[in-house]
Design goal:
single chain, alpha+beta, two-stranded antiparallel sheet, 87 residues, globular
């Protein structure tokens, strides 16, 4: 009985995680639709803050319509404009 409850809990949790993950870009009626940008999403940087840091950043939170607070490995926290990164 306890094992069945645990199994159901795991299934529910995996479904919740599936809904939280951004979906890949898709096409609707010939128009490209980008995946939603959300916190905890890894993005590719278009230009690096320093030569020695990673080329990816983890989005932490949205600061304004076009700005995100992000964490870049080997650099730290940075504020990024929307055009400075891509999914």
């Amino acid at each position: 009985m306890k094992l069945d409850k645990f199994r159901l809990c795991l299934q529910r949790q995996s479904l919740e995680w599936a809904f939280l993950q951004p979906s890949p870009a898709s096409t609707i009626a010939g128009h490209s639709v980008q995946a939603a940008i959300a916190p905890s999403t890894w993005v590719k940087l278009r230009s690096l803050p320093t030569t020695y840091c990673s080329d990816e950043a983890l989005l932490l939170c949205q600061q304004s319509e076009q700005q995100w607070l992000a964490w870049v490995p080997d650099y730290g926290e940075i504020t990024l404009e929307r055009e400075e990164f891509e999914l």
